[in-house]
Amino acid sequence: MHYRQYIKIFLIGFLIIIVSLFYQKLNYKHRPKSLPTKPQPIRLPVSLKRLGISIEGSGLTWFSKEKKFFLVSDDLPHFKNRVFPYIYSLTPNGLISYPPVRVISKDPFDDLEGIASDGENFYLLCSQSMSSKGQLPIKRTCFLKAELKRQKLYVKKNIYLRTRLHELFKNLSPQKRKEVFGFDSEKKFQKLNIEGLAYYKGDLYLAISAPTIKEYALIWRLKDIEQFFTQPELEGKLQLWHRVDTNGEGLSGITFLSDGSLVLLTGTKKGGALWFVPEKKLSNFDLDPVKVTSWPYNPEGVSPWPISVDNKVVVVFDRGKRTPLWTVVDVKSP
Questions:
Q1: C-alpha–C-alpha distance, residues 280 and 282, integer Å
Q2: Residue 209 and residue 255: Cα distance in Å, rounded?
Q3: Cα(76)–Cα(61) distance, rounded to whole angstroms?
Q4: Between 61 and 81, the higher pLDDT residue
Q5: Distance CA 122, CA 139 (A)
Q6: Which residues make Cβ contacts (< 8 Å) with residue 77, sequence separation at least 6?
Q7: What is the mean pLDDT of the chain?
Q8: pLDDT value at position 35?
Q9: What is the rounded CA–CA span in Å between residue 117 and residue 167?
Q10: Alpha-carbon torsion angle 32, 149, 226, 169, nearest 10
Q11: 26 confidence band (pLDDT: 50, 70, 90)
Q12: How many Å from the N-terminal Cα to the C-terminal Cα in the chain?
């Protein structure tokens, strides 16, 4: 081998070492010395900031294959009248990865409020709610099943969920409506707003922001989600799982710990709280959760902290056009 080739190989190897050391230093610099116990800004890459993208933290789930959280925003970025359907990956260090994850879907969607994963597929849920103008575009009623490939999320199936919910609601007797939905009036159905989604042991759990029933918020269970996306019939699959005494506040997030304990969020623009129900108390239909903590911010996404700690959850906060916040909460601490 000619000596020039040796020099070229040496220089390439040296360059690789320098770049590796640089990124190790960069990662160390961005690694927090300890987990945040108070809300702090999620770090955004410079490339994302330059695009002028605002992220509203409206839903969160952990995806073990990528060793990252995935975050949805209820406000999709717009450029020159074009909508870009992005979601975002978030490292355990609180850093949004670049580029954002593009969702490849033949059906447009909007107002994403929930995300969950079964370890293989992702489930994305739009709010199913009326817009601020009192309108209900079909794109706000999407319920998507998607698969991650090459850092893009490919939608395998979309179900317009609100249409199917309303069909079932109309076909049930008033008593049966209360058993399945938790209410029986059309007026309450028109207020429907779903803001949280969680996967647990083959089923999906929907956290209802509106309506509330007196002091109770509602949680729906959608059984055997794999079969539902194959045969999308709600009758026999949808049930009112629990009512939760939140002093009349609607739910904005939901997740489960590894032992089956339940973690819930409530929130508005004025502030919100995190609630905890141990697994042994889920045998009760009406739940009386413990309020673990509260904030002057609006929490909308929650997911278990995945690294060797069973009692901690990560919470993200929606601050509109401002940088979203995140924190870690020990839900079982006294």
A1: 6
A2: 15
A3: 18
A4: 61
A5: 18
A6: 51, 52, 53, 54, 83, 84, 86
A7: 88
A8: 77
A9: 27
A10: 80
A11: very low
A12: 69
Q: What is the pTM of this model?
A: 0.88
The closest alpha carbon to 125, from 137, 107, 143, 105, belongs to 143
Interval 169-193 mean pLDDT? 97
Distance CA 135, CA 164 (A): 18
pLDDT above 90: percentage of residues in the chain: 71
Residue 240's identity, in one-letter code, is: L
Higher pLDDT, 68 or 2: 68
CA distance linking residue 18 with residue 245, whole number of Å: 57
Cα torsion 284, 188, 183, 219: sign: negative
Question: What angle (nearest 5°) sits at the alpha carbon of residue 87, between those of residues 230 and 125?
Answer: 40
Q: What is the pLDDT of residues 190-219, one digit of tens each?
A: 999 999 999 999 999 999 999 999 999 999
Q: Cα dihedral angle (237, 128, 262, 279), rounded to 10 degrees?
A: -20
Q: Who's near 40: CB < 8 A, 6+ residues apart?
A: 94, 325, 326, 327
Pick the closest to residue 203 from 179, 226, 229, 169 (CA basis).
Answer: 226
| CA distances for 194 relative to 66, 111, 264, 329, angstroms | 27, 11, 13, 23
**What phi, psi does 274 have (nearest 5°)?**
-115, 135
Dihedrals φ, ψ of 187, to 5°? -60, -40
Q: Which residues contact 232 (CB under 8 A, 6 or more apart)?
A: 159, 164
Per-residue model confidence as pLDDT tens digits over 84-129: 688 999 999 999 998 899 999 999 998 999 999 999 999 999 999 9
